[in-house]
Specification:
Layout lengths: L43 H5 L13 E2 L6 H10 L11 H10 L5 E6 L26 E9 L4 E9 L2 E8 L5 H8 L2 H11 L19 E12 L5 E9 L3 E7 L3 E8 L9 H22 L3 H14 L22 H4 L8 E7 L14 E13 L7 E17 L17 E19 L2 E21 L2 E17 L1 H4 L11 H18 L25
Helix pairs in contact: 2-3, 3-4, 3-5, 6-7
Length: 538
């Protein structure tokens, strides 16, 4: 059983002696079922030890405020859940639900005194407003700033024997603002529930759908204690506003960092174009995870956060209107070389493990980076140039059993040393650019490159049997002027409608070609990296 220490600054009454005899009607039944270490639970044994002493009466829950509302009801319901992250179930949604009703300044806390507490020691206000707030082992905070400048703050804190919530505003909220807050209730709860799972998930889709006409920014911080044989903490930070969107995660599996530039709206493509680019990147994330044996949960978080942060983008500018942000109005030819996504940088770093006690230099790790950067330069519209660069890099290493389906268990015994050790180094890039002089297109090109290196060492009974390196390279340079430039004389007999359709199809085809190709022409199935290379290059 896990016993929970009182919060600092909160003093319980002196414990009763072991000879005390509780009222039989109020006595709690002794626990006789073992509880997993990953669950926080309470029992008489956690206080008195396992000496078989009679259980003491369970004092009533003490509340910070006597008022009862939907939030207090949700606290009562969720408090009975001792499971990992379960204490906040339904609470986030209940709090923002109150905001929608106009109740956006409140504070509530509850605590279950230990069984050894002398009855009636606690008064109605025994828990001071600030005694539990901010002291949670598990805590979540949400900060929302409206376009009018009002800041709304929500906080949730959970200790083993206590739960606290608070919501404050820096000013009065209008009807549209309270409605916009209420619409985030489900998204806020989804984000909380995602972090509350034993294998955490980043669920930000709902929060990303905030009304940008009413709300200026949304920030979330979550910190959850992982309870087990080795205790640790996993954290999530999220921020979204008109200029940027960010996600940072750190936990047992590793860390993730993602930033999206939301300021250059004129480089964005249509929803269909963005969806196609997102699908391409999802495929490449899967390929990298498979080839490098990346942690499935960590890569799932990258995919979920990447998709969420690229959602709810403003509609692209029309070709005739000047952009609200960005240097120049972009023509259809300019946008044809762009992915349609906002610029970004993302990195995933898996926690390093040393699984072979006989060879301390061999490690199991996974590091993946991917980014996009767009530059618009020139003295004026007729002298503009646009360049978009995409890059990816994978560095991974892992051990694999010689027999498919048989788990690898490496020990100090040479008989266990039957395995392959893989080291993966992959890079890819795409560089597309166009340039104009006196309003005419004078340069248009696309360069794409990709390289892979697979280094595999094979050991049998601790002896090195083979050491092979297999490289792979891909490079292409295309002149895009024939595609983006004026039609040749051979097309002079075509009707204007036919020329428009030909142009449209040519630009659509180019849209597909400019997407980053980390593994061009290759099909990477799950755990393909387990298969030893057929050909070796020293």
């Amino acid at each position: 059983m896990t016993s929970i220490s009182p919060l600092s600054g909160w003093n319980s009454a002196p414990p009763r002696t072991s000879s005390a005899t509780p009222n039989r009607a109020d006595a709690a039944s002794p626990s006789h079922v073992s509880t997993p270490s990953s669950i926080v639970a309470f029992s008489p044994e956690s206080v008195n030890g396992s000496n078989g002493a009679a259980a003491l009466p369970k004092p009533p829950v003490v509340w910070e405020s006597a008022s009862r509302d939907k939030v207090s009801e949700a606290m009562t319901k969720s408090f009975s859940s001792y499971a990992f992250g379960g204490r906040f179930g339904g609470l986030g949604a209940a709090m923002l639900g109150q905001a929608k009703l106009g109740n956006y300044n409140f504070s509530q806390a509850m605590r279950q005194p230990p069984p050894t507490t002398t009855p009636n020691v606690y008064g109605a206000a025994a828990i001071a407003p600030g005694s539990l707030h901010g002291n949670g082992e598990d805590n979540v905070s949400l900060s929302i700033t409206t376009r009018s400048g009002v800041e709304v703050k929500l906080s949730l804190d959970s200790q083993g024997d206590g739960l606290a919530v608070r919501m404050t505003t820096s000013g009065e909220l209008g009807e549209a603002e309270t409605r916009a807050l209420g619409e985030l209730a489900k998204g806020f709860q989804d984000a909380i529930d995602g972090m509350g799972q034993s294998t955490p998930k980043i669920k930000l889709e709902g929060l990303m759908q905030f009304d940008q006409q009413v709300l200026e920014s949304v920030k979330l911080h979550a910190e959850v204690k992982v309870r087990g044989e080795l205790e640790s903490v996993q954290t999530l930070d999220f921020q979204a506003d008109g200029a940027q969107r960010k996600v940072g995660f750190s936990g047992v599996a590793g860390s993730l960092d993602l930033k999206v530039d939301a300021s250059q709206l004129n480089t964005l493509g249509s929803r269909e174009r963005q969806a196609k680019a997102l699908g391409s990147y999802m495929k490449q994330f899967d390929q990298a995870a498979s080839r490098g044996h990346g942690d499935a949960g960590l890569m799932a978080m990258l995919k979920d956060s990447f998709t969420a942060l690229h959602s709810n983008t403003a509609a692209p500018q029309t070709e005739t209107a000047m952009p609200e942000t960005g240097k120049w109005r972009l023509a259809a030819e300019d946008k044809s070389i762009l992915t349609g996504l906002a610029d970004f940088s993302a990195s995933v770093s898996q926690a390093v493990k040393f699984s072979n006690p006989m060879r301390g230099t061999e490690k199991d790790g996974f590091n993946y980076e991917v980014s996009q950067k767009t530059a618009q330069t020139g003295a004026r519209q007729d002298e503009r140039s646009i360049r978009q660069q995409q890059q990816s890099k994978l560095s991974a290493s892992f051990h694999q059993s010689l027999v498919a389906g048989v788990p690898l268990r490496l020990t100090d015994n040479t008989e266990s040393q039957n395995y392959t050790y893989h080291q993966i180094e992959d890079t890819a890039s795409s560089d597309a650019q166009v340039a104009y002089k006196d309003g005419k297109l004078v340069q248009a090109s696309l360069r794409q490159e990709a390289s892979q290196s697979t280094h595999v060492k094979k050991y049998f009974l601790g002896k090195l049997e083979s050491d092979k390196t297999t490289p792979g390279n891909y490079s292409v340079l295309r002149d895009l002027l024939p595609v983006l430039g004026s039609y040749k004389s051979g097309d002079k007999d075509a009707t204007s409608e036919a020329r428009i359709e030909q142009r449209k199809q040519a630009l659509l085809a180019l849209n597909d070609d400019v997407l980053l190709q980390s593994y061009p022409g290759q099909t990477i199935s799950l755990w393909q990296a387990d298969v030893l290379p057929g050909e070796a290059v020293g």
